[in-house]
Known about the structure:
There is one protein chain. This protein is α+β, with helices and mostly antiparallel strands. It is built from 17 helices and seven strands. It has helices spanning 13-17, 65-80, 85-103, 109-120, 135-145, 155-166, 170-189, 198-206, 224-230, 236-247, 251-255, 290-303, 323-332, 341-352, 358-364, 372-377, 383-397; strands at residues 24-28, 31-35, 40-48, 51-60, 262-263, 266-269, 284-287. The protein has a four-stranded antiparallel sheet with strand order 1-2-3-4, covered by helices on one side. Strands 5-6-7 form a three-stranded antiparallel sheet. Helix 5 (135-145) packs across helix 7. The longest helix has 20 residues, at 170-189. The relative contact order is 0.07.
Amino acid sequence: MGDAMAGISKLTAVQIRNAKHGQKLEDGGGLRFVGAKVGGNWIFRYSLKGKRREMGLGSFPSVSLSDARAEREKWSAVVRDGKDPIQERQRIMDETARESVAAQAVPTFAEMVDIAFEARKARLRRDGEAGRWLSPLRLYVIPAIGNMPVTDITQTHIHAALKPIWRKMHPTAVKAIQRTRIVLTHARLSQFDVDPMICDAAEMMLGFVNHRKKPIPATPWKDVPDLYRRIAPDRSTHLVLRFAILTAMRSNAIRKARYEEVEGDVWTVPAERMKGSEADASNFRVPLSAAALEVIEATRELTGGSGFIFPSPCRGGKNPVSDVAVSKVLNVLGEAGRLHGFRTSFRTWAQDTEAASYDVAETALGHIVGNKVERSYARSDLLERRRFLMQRWADFVTMSDAKVVQFSR
């Protein structure tokens, strides 16, 4: 019918193929072709309630001239009915999407966890290989509701799953409910009939907890030299404590340290053993004091100088020494402070004695200093200034700074 009307279907296939980039060709009835470097684009122009609008109909040659004319007739009829073609097309697309989702089998919560994690893991360190993101869900939520379809889960189910740990293990329970919310939000955005707000309702049902985070016990910095003296200088599980004191690094970085990571007086900790987001994680250089180098030399006699610097006594040294083994040494020594607490000891010493500026002391701990903009310009890791600081700390720890002056009679 449209082709029979005057001024309609003016274009030919040859004109379409020969159209230049940016050239506009009118077929009539609101159908326009805009040439491109390769092919071109179809546009349907129409007026509705006094407003001029344009709707894309696809690109040539995927959409042929006859296809574009058929689309023009289809959407012209919609305009004559007083409807907006753009809104009508979106409505049809939404209905199709809903029908497609409805045809899918509703996933269980456990299946939805896997789907959400797969979409999210690129944001996690090493693609979430350590399993820490999934751990609260696998331990406390999936055992309770993992087999339930996500559309059947209510706040009552989440409340029942987390009630046993809500007050006893509050930080873990909070992580569990936060990640449950992420999973349900992913399900909602995937067009499943799920309301992530049930997590908020469950949290309200669980009640407020005035949780106070307990800091990791730390040895007072003035007591560190005495502790260092009591640590055996010829046992691997003891030497790891000396190295931890002298470097002020985290347990994971120290226990898994390898000889090939040490070059001269610099130990380079790989990014995967540094704490931080994927965007900020990078290899971290640690300047080693004379005392720290002595610790490494002492371990060479015990290990042969290859593999882990602090290997586990079990399994032939194929694994690094464990946190449990290190904690046992501290317990035997009667020390309340923990390995991670040596970082606090070092930082408090630097603060109380004004041994270094804030930036140097924080960088020595591997902390991120400044916001992203500041870090994009200030890129130095302050290695030389940290080398001086760590030697001062080692001198204090080993009592090398206690100079004795003898007078002749």
